[in-house]
Each structure stands twice: as C-alpha cells, then as structure tokens.
Design brief:
about 20% strand; 3-stranded antiparallel β-sheet; alpha+beta; single chain; 4-stranded antiparallel β-sheet; about 190 residues; 7 strands; about 45% helix
C-alpha cells in the first residue's frame, strides 16, 4: 500500500554568512536559485532569509532551503537556523501553552512524574536556561507534547550542530579535526 506523504508549510529563518550587502542582484540570485518563498533581509548586521516552505517535514524544508541558498552563486552560506535551543522557564511555558508556575512545579518535582532535565546554565542569579531538546524529550516521554514537536526540535538541533561543525572546520580545520579525532578515540 502506498503511504501518502503530507506536505505542510514550515516557517523558519536562516542566518546567512558570506553576503554583507543586499543588492537587487543578490536578491534576484536567491530568487532564481529557488528562494522564491523567502524574504531576504538584513537584521542586526546579518543577512537572513525567512522562509515559508512547503515540504513533508521541517527538516526537509530547511535542508532544501540551505541547498537553494548555496546554489545562488553569490558567496552565501548558511550559518545557522535562527532557532534558540536554550530556553527559559517562561519560554517553556509559552511553547507548551501552560503557566510558568506549572512549569516550575514540573522542574521541582511538585507536579508531574519528576526527573525534569537539569538547567544547561545560569546566565545570572536565578535566571536559568534549559536545552529545549532535552525538555521536549522529557515532555514527550510524559505525554505532554506531540511527537512532531519533539521531532522538529531534534531536527533543527541536528542541522544547527552540523552547520556549526562546518563553520568550525572553515575557521580552524586543523584544530577541529584534532578535537574530532580525540573525542572519537575516547568513545
């Protein structure tokens, strides 16, 4: 039996590198390369491309957009998907449409099954940040979010990890390869 693939519209923003000025020629090159579903703009000194792309998954939409950006031939590359994996308690509450107080109770174990992920870091006294992927996994395990929310978080995190590794290799190939080799040898 043929399984039907459902294509949906996915909204996301790619932060670009290699293009400092948005001329009409640059914008036209992006359009001709397949970025006709994107708005190209300059934001805080960076060029960004905000897409509304139809694809079977967020991952597929992002990967095809990265391919189109690179194909434009204007020296542009993708630095990252503009998606912060670090979230505050308030961010978590917004993402799951619950109160901050309820999220705090999950964190302390006063409500829910316990075992809420530990914070990734503390940016100031009392302001903690969590990795969204870890929180999403915990929420999914405890039937508090749908699997597609978890899948999107994991896919964007994986894409950003690979993009970061590519950037590190361009910035200092020797160091990056040394670290990869050392980390791989210890596993």
């Amino acid at each position: 039996m043929n399984e039907r693939i459902c294509e949906c519209e996915h909204d996301f923003t790619l932060v670009l590198t290699g293009v400092n000025e948005l001329t009409q020629g640059v914008v036209d090159s992006f359009y001709e390369a397949g970025c006709d579903d994107a708005t190209i703009a300059s934001r805080c000194g960076r060029v960004v491309a905000t897409f509304s792309r139809t694809a079977p998954s967020l991952k597929d939409a992002i990967l095809s957009a990265i391919h189109c950006i690179r194909r434009a031939g204007v020296g542009a590359d993708v630095l990252r998907v503009d998606y912060c994996n670090l979230v505050t308690q308030a961010d978590i509450a917004r993402k799951i449409s619950r109160s901050r107080q309820l999220v705090h109770q999950y964190m302390t174990g006063a409500r829910g099954p316990g075992g809420f992920p530990s914070p990734a870091c503390e940016i100031s006294d009392g302001t903690r940040l969590w990795f969204w992927c870890e929180v999403a996994y915990w929420l999914w395990q405890n039937d508090m979010i749908k699997e597609d929310v978890l899948r999107d978080a994991q896919q964007v995190e994986a894409i950003n990890s690979v993009l970061e590794m590519e950037w590190q290799k361009r910035a200092n190939r020797e160091l990056t390869e040394e670290v990869i080799k050392a980390v791989s040898a210890s596993s």
